[in-house]
Write a structure and sequence with these properties.
heterotetramer, A: mainly alpha, 2 strands, D: alpha/beta, Rossmann fold, four-stranded antiparallel β-sheet, 10 helices, disordered N terminus, Peripla_BP_I (chain C), signal (chain C), Branched-chain amino acid ABC transporter substrate-binding protein (chain C), Leu-bd (chain C)
Chain lengths: ~500, ~325, ~400, ~260
């Protein structure tokens, strides 16, 4: 309600635009960043482990030592090079070198080659989107996946075991969670609860649970079935569990749903531990669970836990079935409805979509996939305790999905495979890598996993292989159009 | 009946645990308020505060088991609390700078924040384990925790007393919460936080430096969690994995009270503590069912009030 | 804007590459200026370069994750045994340690067993540390004829599962549970006992055995459980205090046992407080504080009295190596490793077969630090003596053999 | 800057304020969201003391223009000049300190704060809230004084609009950006609000007004710009625009009397 003179206003603008204090110089800022990074890395890569009796041990050995000096000097060198690069001097030199080199190669490489090269590039440009080529490619990838246990690394029993017991199982689980989180946009932090339900179903159907009062399972075999029957039964049970959890809670908005599902996981775990009616045998669980058997049309085959390959074939079979089914689902009306719900639940509801029904559907499909994975895992482990299903596992599976690229089947498969495989690889690489020694100390592996997750999310938030739609949503959000996910919008959908 | 006989004792234990939960829950809820982020790494902020406090105590009192008395008891305790608060605030601040600010600049979706937080949490606690060993650390006693007053309803093994440590926990927690409430509702920083929580963009149009407010929100959350961590260390134990369970509980408490609402977090924390305590008094072998009961209570509350007890549509505080 | 980011990212990556290469460099130089870097190295205690071939002893246990501390105790024990043996250098080969981290989880049991099995240099395994992974890995070790001596898997049924090459140097829950119950019933003459377990496989197994024996002894038993990670033990402690039980047994690990001890002290419980081998750890005292830990008793099928000079040597060597006091199962890990070493010594060849090692372990009779290592036909340790320890002025001291304590009273 | 900046009397002479020096200038400003170009090189000028109306259909880029001025969006190219100085690189929260008040589209009241708290937020850039300003806002909007202890979310649409303007006024703006102040309001209230806008201008505040209600806006404004799909298609004194047949057809078809 007062008018300031124009000259005074322009003086103010100039004042605001003025350079900051010298210590806010971006150059020094970058030095600080590099130094901090180098100091942290010096600790991270130090093989010494700290001690609870001398808290300063690791600092002394990573900072106040020749090691620390090396790192700091290295950091400063990197900073100098980077700054010099920025100041263009080096960049120009490098540019000249490159252009000279380019001219030389142009002399050496015959014209015909470059022409052929461009023809080749054109061929690829035509090839990649080609439908038939893509089909052949997919078939090739599938074939490689099936015969993986006979290839390179995976001929080693360790990696076979990891492949069947970890990669296969968690890819399957992550595919299911992708339906819930990636497609329907529901944040589920208790996903492994369904996995546990599938696993306990397996144990019960194989006649190892419930135990009698004397703790002897053999004396009380209520059911004893071929484990292949566990799949349909686990599906029914986990779907029911999904319904029981989902029906009352799916009306909650994103983060509230997250804590309720987390709680559900905790409740399932506690029930298993507290052993109502001797059903789960509490923390002791069950051992010696029989595994898959095939006895039909005169063909007889037993899965033997000492050989991982058959489990992988089973896992890849299940994964293929699930992927095929989910692909159909993604491009069906159901898939489109999920997208609508995820992007704007209120609008979807307003246009007559029964959102709760579709959300429940996603929840149940996810749950049953998790149950599948649970059956598979338990059959391979042949033993079960509540400790197999820690709360962290639910969080990890969610991380696999986001890491790979939420909403994209390829992304989720790749993400889950890499994230489950990585720690095992770091711990016991094959002999041709790092001469078979652990790449990092097993004790530090979780730390590195956390660091990978963190860096990945900071530098590539869309995940390894994001779905096209997600990538678009993200790019738009980055420029301020719309929200990248409707997940945290209030269910009532009122703008603040 | 066990419950009625031990009512006061159960209530007191519930309040003691609940005020610790509340101190942590406030950090969750404030960060949620300004960023809509479930800051899973907050449990590690809490853990680092406990470590900071314990290191301070070790430096001051040593580990020879001598318990200081008089003014030095007070001094050591206060310094430990301050050290914990400062360390936690520093960790929370750097967490925001390193992990969340780049994401905020890119308008990353909330789930990416969540996974970043999880990654940061895994990284931080394992780093702490690498730095300081994987065993429980020794917490030197900074004062003699003698009986202060007797609770009504004494049990067969003698009267139930409330000790100095209990008083310290509850009193510190309540003082911090009251101060925080004043800061949120009476100061300029507080109104900035509330404005950013409600509508960050409009807050910017009022001249609020959103980045700075978010940083300070993390710092405030860290300060409270740090104090909570030191108190928890004195009451419970300290190790690199100590953050996970209290973190989950405090998050539950924050949701119970209505996430985003500071008073809700205080209320939710106390309520959760009391529910946990009471369920032990009411259910036979209740300790086994504590988690089940508290989550069932949470679900029931959310079914009645989908945004928690002081959900955002009613509460005034941010 | 974008170029700045790219430069920054480039700098970051460069720094990373530099750091990693620096790290690799320093590790090949077997140094880095620190006191324990050579022993702290990831997989194997580096063997002297003396032209001998290298054989390995595997360790399978939780080296990361929630139960890491227990696994590390074992790991350091094994590393110490190997280091001492290499220092002696009287074998026709060098020894190294190969670690397999199962995080104490059953899910990883088989994978990690396979890691050790596929490495033909591994001649014997100390582990798996936990009963869960053992159940998943036992059959694999059997098939591979690779001997696995667990320092800590106590579930009784493991040795009844038909694992041909599985042995353990700890008493199973039934033996320890029975002894603990008899001690409380007969030596302490407790007419009523309160048994608390931590809802772990170990705790539940032990408490089940104790409760069964106590009932057989005609003792009134009250039980409760508090799962590891319980936030507030006060109510449980005051329940124990008001139950008037003459003795209380906590079946669980020290990390939570120490916190429970604090609460019991605060609740003013004045009966005898006991726990098992999972809690007999200096860290129990660290956690509980000297005051609250004072007077606690532990049952353990291990004899590691401070009177034995070998034990004192072990403690100081361990401290030097691990930067920490030996804890629960450290000695068992050390003994298990030495058992394998003694067998390899007996075979005295640079190319032993796993079969030969497995056969010899079945017949071994080795005087370990904690006990005489000799196995029954199923793989259990044949010595069934259980000892009682007590914390006296902040130190865990031996009270005696349960049998003599029971008989003598 | 000092809290109570030195003020000069409002230059409300008979001469049109359109002859004054330019307070705000946009020169070939381009703004894009991701791949979508929202402003395709806009030139625009607001002189001190003026009310300038920005007209156009939905999606023409009116709101984008305001958001670019207040720093919420960064131009891809071009320059925003304020009092002759480029605003490039100054973040939104600092632009407020230069006396640019912005009452955003959809009012964006802090619904969980009281009316008074909302107004205090408006004065966030000052160390303390000036009672004089508060009184002045209450004088302009007596309704707000009655409702001062009510939560922002409980106000009616018209009251919220008053609050949004009042809140922007609390920052003592030299330039006030008003985004669709009449949106969704009853005609009676719209008239009331436009009258107040005129009063605010009379007090010396320059106003850049975005409106769909072209007729009302042009009656009030000194000059007007017409935006179409991110480009200025017409700019003229308000009276001329009001009488332009193309404008009458395109924007006043419904509302022209």
């Amino acid at each position: 309600m007062s008018t300031t003179s124009i000259s005074e206003l322009s003086a103010q603008v100039r004042r605001l635009r003025k350079q900051d204090a010298w210590w806010k110089n971006p150059m020094l800022g970058r030095l600080a960043i590099i130094l901090a990074l180098v100091l942290v890395l010096s600790i991270l890569t130090n093989q010494v482990q700290g001690s609870s009796s001398d808290y300063t041990l690791l600092f002394k050995s990573s900072w106040f030592s020749s090691r620390g000096a090396q790192y700091v000097i290295g950091g400063v060198l990197i900073w100098i090079i980077a700054e010099a690069w920025r100041i263009q001097g080096l960049r120009r030199i490098a540019g000249q070198t490159i252009s000279v080199a380019g001219r030389r190669t142009a002399l050496i490489v015959p014209r015909s080659f470059t022409r052929q090269y461009s023809r080749l590039a054109g061929f690829f440009r035509w090839l990649i989107p080609n439908r038939w080529f893509r089909r052949v490619l997919v078939l090739a990838v599938v074939a490689v996946a099936i015969f993986l246990p006979y290839l390179g690394l995976f001929t080693l029993p360790y990696f076979q075991s990891v492949l069947a017991g970890q990669v296969g199982v968690y890819v399957l689980a992550a595919l299911g969670l992708n339906v819930v989180v990636g497609w329907a946009g529901l944040l589920d932090l208790g996903y492994i609860a369904f996995f546990a339900i599938g696993a306990y179903t397996t144990a019960i159907l194989s006649g190892k649970l419930p135990v009698g009062a004397d703790g002897n399972p053999e004396a009380h075999p209520p059911i004893h079935l071929n484990l292949f029957f566990a799949f349909p039964i686990a599906v029914v049970l986990t779907m029911t569990a999904g319904l029981i959890l989902g029906a009352p809670t799916l009306r909650l908005r994103g983060d509230y749903l997250a804590i309720v599902t987390l709680g559900f996981h905790e409740i399932v775990l506690q029930l298993a531990k507290n052993n109502p009616h001797n059903l789960t045998n509490g923390p002791l669980g069950a051992t010696g669970i029989s595994t898959f058997r095939f006895n039909l049309f005169g063909v007889h085959y037993d899965w033997n836990p000492t050989d991982s390959k058959p489990y992988w074939f089973l896992a890849i079979g299940l994964i293929l079935i699930v992927v095929f089914a989910f692909r159909r689902l993604e491009h069906s009306k159901v898939g489109r409805t999920w997208t609508a719900i995820r992007e704007d639940e209120v609008a979807a509801a307003a246009s007559g979509v029964p959102t709760v029904k579709y959300k429940l559907m996603a929840f149940m499909i996810g749950a049953s996939t998790s149950g599948f994975a649970g059956v598979l895992a338990t059959a391979k482990i042949t033993a079960i305790t509540p400790d197999n299903f820690p709360l962290q596992l639910s969080i990890f599976v969610l991380a696999y999905v986001i890491f790979g690229g939420m909403g994209s089947l390829t992304g989720v498969i790749v993400g889950a495979s890499l994230m489950t495989f990585l720690p095992f690889f770091l711990q016991g690489p094959p002999s041709w890598f790092n001469s078979g020694k652990p790449v990092v100390d097993p004790k530090d592996i979780p730390m590195w996993v956390g660091a990978v997750l963190l860096t990945m999310m900071i530098f590539r938030p869309q995940g390894l292989i994001p779905s096209k739609r997600r990538a678009q949503e993200l790019a738009q959000a980055e420029h301020g159009v719309g929200d990248a996910d409707a997940m945290t919008e209030p269910a009532e959908g009122v703008a603040p | 009946m066990y419950f009625t006989q031990h009512f006061w004792e159960l209530l007191f234990q519930g309040i003691r645990l609940g005020s610790l939960y509340a101190l942590i829950a406030i950090g969750y809820t404030m960060v949620y308020g300004v960023l809509q982020l479930i800051n899973f790494a907050h449990s590690e902020v809490f853990m680092s505060g406990a470590l900071g406090g314990v290191f301070m105590l070790t430096a001051l009192a040593g580990t020879n088991g001598n318990i200081p008395s008089g003014f030095s008891a007070f001094e050591y305790t206060a310094l430990a609390l301050i050290a914990g608060a400062v360390v936690s605030a520093a960790v929370a601040f750097s967490l925001e700078r390193v992990a969340y600010r780049p994401l905020r600049k890119r308008h990353a979706p909330k789930l990416v924040y969540l996974i970043t937080a999880i990654g940061a949490s895994i990284f931080l606690y394992n780093l702490a384990g690498k730095l300081f060993g994987r065993n429980n650390l020794q917490v030197p006693e900074s004062f003699h925790s003698g009986p202060v007053f007797v609770l009504p309803g004494s049990g067969p093994s003698g009267p139930r007393t409330v000790k100095t440590l209990d008083v310290l926990i509850i009193a510190t927690a309540f003082v911090m919460m009251i101060v925080l409430d004043l800061v949120i509702n009476r100061t300029k920083l507080g109104s900035g936080i509330r404005a950013v929580a409600q509508d960050a963009e409009t807050a910017q149009l009022m001249g609020v430096d959103v980045g700075k407010v978010i940083s300070r929100t993390f710092i405030i959350g860290g300060l409270l969690a740090g104090v909570g961590g030191v108190l928890y260390a004195m009451f419970h134990a300290v190790s690199y994995t100590m953050g996970f369970i209290p973190g989950i509980k405090a998050f539950t408490a924050a949701v119970l009270g209505g996430i985003g609402n500071v008073r809700g977090a205080m209320l939710g924390g106390l309520l959760l503590g009391i529910v946990e305590s009471f369920s032990q008094g009411i259910i036979p072998n209740g300790l086994e069912w504590v988690d089940v009961v508290s989550f069932v209570v949470l679900v029931v509350v959310l079914l009645i009030r989908p945004t928690g007890i002081l959900g955002e549509r009613t509460g005034r505080a941010a | 804007m974008r170029t700045i980011n790219r430069v920054r990212a480039g700098a970051v990556i460069a720094a990373g590459v530099f750091a990693l290469s620096a790290c690799a460099g320093s590790s090949t130089k077997s140094g880095g200026g620190s006191t324990s870097s050579s022993t702290g190295s990831g997989s194997s205690t580096s063997a002297a370069n003396n032209g001998k071939p290298t054989l390995e002893i595997g360790v399978q246990g939780p080296l990361s994750g929630a139960n890491q501390a227990l696994g590390l105790n074992i790991d350091w024990g094994v590393k110490l045994a190997v280091q001492q043996e290499n220092a002696k250098g009287d074998l026709p080969f060098n020894l190294a340690v190969k670690e397999a981290d199962d995080q104490g989880l059953q899910n990883n049991g088989a994978d990690e067993a396979n890691l050790l099995i596929q490495d033909q240099k591994v001649m014997g395994v100390v582990g798996p540390a936990f009963s869960g992974p053992t159940a998943a890995a036992g059959a694999l070790y059997s098939t591979a004829n690779l001997v696995a001596i667990s320092p800590s898997a106590t579930a009784p049924k493991l040795t009844a599962s038909g694992f041909k090459t599985f042995y353990r140097v700890v008493a199973n829950d039934n033996i320890q549970g029975k002894a603990a119950a008899d001690y409380m019933a007969k030596a302490l003459k407790a007419s009523n006992v309160f048994v608390v377990d931590d809802k772990s496989q170990y705790g539940q197994g032990l408490s089940t055995a104790i409760v069964a024996e106590l009932k057989a002894d005609g003792v009134t038993v009250e039980t409760d459980s508090a799962q590891a990670g319980t936030q507030d033990y006060s109510q449980l402690a005051s329940k124990v205090a008001s139950s008037g039980a003459k003795a209380m047994y906590y079946a669980g690990y020290y990390a939570d046992g120490g916190v429970f001890a604090k609460a019991l002290k605060s609740a003013g419980y004045n009966g005898t407080m006991m726990s098992g081998d999972g809690s007999k750890d200096p860290n129990f005292i660290t956690t509980a504080g000297k005051d609250a830990a004072e007077g606690w008793q532990f049952t353990c099928a291990c004899l590691d009295a401070g009177t034995n000079p070998k034990y004192a040597a072990f403690v100081s060597a361990y401290k030097q190596l691990a930067n920490a006091e030996p804890g629960t199962y450290s000695i068992e890990g050390y003994d298990a490793a030495n058992t394998i070493i003694s067998v390899l010594k007996g075979l005295n060849t640079a190319t032993p077969t796993r079969q030969a090692v497995a056969d010899a372990v079945g017949k071994v009779d080795y005087q370990g630090l904690s006990k005489e290592v000799k196995f029954t036909s199923t793989g259990d340790i044949s010595t069934t003596a259980v000892y009682v320890y007590q914390i006296k002025s902040g130190v865990i001291t031996l009270l005696g053999d349960v049998n003599t304590l029971v008989g003598g009273s | 800057m000092s809290d109570q900046a030195s003020t000069i009397p409002a230059p409300r002479t008979e001469a049109s304020p359109s002859d004054n020096a330019a307070l705000l200038e946009l020169s070939s400003v381009e703004v894009a969201y991701g791949g979508i170009v929202a402003l395709k090189g806009i030139d625009l000028e607001v002189r001190q003391g003026e009310i300038v109306a920005l007209l156009g259909a939905n999606g023409a880029g009116k709101t984008t223009t305001l958001r670019t001025v207040s720093g919420l969006l960064k131009p891809r190219s071009g320059e925003v000049r304020y009092a002759g100085e480029a605003l490039t690189g100054i973040p939104a929260h600092k632009i407020v300190q230069l006396g640019i008040g912005h009452s955003p589209e959809g009012r964006r009241i802090f619904s969980r704060m009281t009316v008074l708290e909302n107004l205090q937020m408006g004065a966030y850039r000052f160390k303390s809230v000036s009672q004089k300003d508060l009184d002045q806002v209450f004088e302009l909007f007596p309704r707000l004084q009655e409702r001062r202890t009510q939560l922002g979310g409980n106000l009616s649409g018209g009251e919220q609009q008053m609050l949004a303007i009042g809140r922007a006024m609390m920052g003592q703006p030299a330039l006030l950006l008003l985004d669709e102040p009449s949106m969704g309001l009853a005609p009676l209230i719209v008239a009331q609000i436009f009258e107040i806008i005129e009063r605010i201008n009379a007090l010396g505040t320059t106003i850049l007004l975005v409106e769909q209600n072209a007729a009302q806006a042009l009656k009030l404004a000194h000059r007007g710009y017409v935006l179409e799909t991110g480009e200025v298609v017409m700019s003229a004194p308000a009276g001329e625009l009001l009488n332009d047949p193309r404008i009458r057809e395109a924007y006043l078809g419904e509302t022209a009397e």
